Amino acid sequence: MAESALNLRERRRQKTLRRLTDVARRLTGDRGFTGFTVEELCEEAGVSRRTFFNYFAAKEDAVLGFPVRRDDDAIDAAFVTGGADRPPGGVSTTLLDDMLAFFIARWGRLSLTASEAKRVFAIIDQEPRLHTRILQLLREGEQTTIALVERREDLAPGDIRASTLVHVVGTLNRIVAEEYLATHGDAPPSLDDFADRLRERAAIVRALFA
């Protein structure tokens, strides 16, 4: 019963999250980002202002689809506790593979189709304020991931190995995501296909640097 209630709450949360994002993007497309208020967005979506801020920190985040709570704790924990066979002063032998699995798991939580991605990119291109915000959010996410690597590997803050890993795999992730969305149209995201593409790129990097 408890698990069923939890699943129901999560479905409702996802439905509200999706509705707020859809309305925010529609209003931005129709009126421009400054052409509507949070109150008007809430009225269109049928939620209270308080509910809105339980889901998003700002109007920009609703348009971009970056909620306050991302529910990535399990993914983060699996990565942090996965380190093994770490030589003194070195890093885990599975670190790269586990970092790839981390990004793949994050992708698996998305449901973005190519048409939705194009719509968001078009809005960002028209609204410099959104471009600035997404860069900020991406930098924050990058720093959070670097901190996870440092924590997992017992590295000192600022150890260049952690940032290098995140920058390299993060760049591969972005390239594969763009390629994937360009070739899949409106088909539902395929986690296996995305994972194969990302691991293929990583294998090339391994061979080049071997």
TrEMBL record:
Keywords: DNA-binding, Transcription, Transcription regulation. The keyword Transferase does not apply. It comes from the Bacteria. Residues 14-74 form the HTH tetR-type domain. One of its GO terms (molecular function) is DNA-binding transcription factor activity. Pfam families: TetR_N. The keyword Transit peptide does not apply. Coiled coil: none annotated. Residues 37-56 bind DNA. PROSITE patterns: HTH_TETR_1 (PS01081), HTH_TETR_2 (PS50977). This is TetR family transcriptional regulator. It comes from Microbacterium betulae.
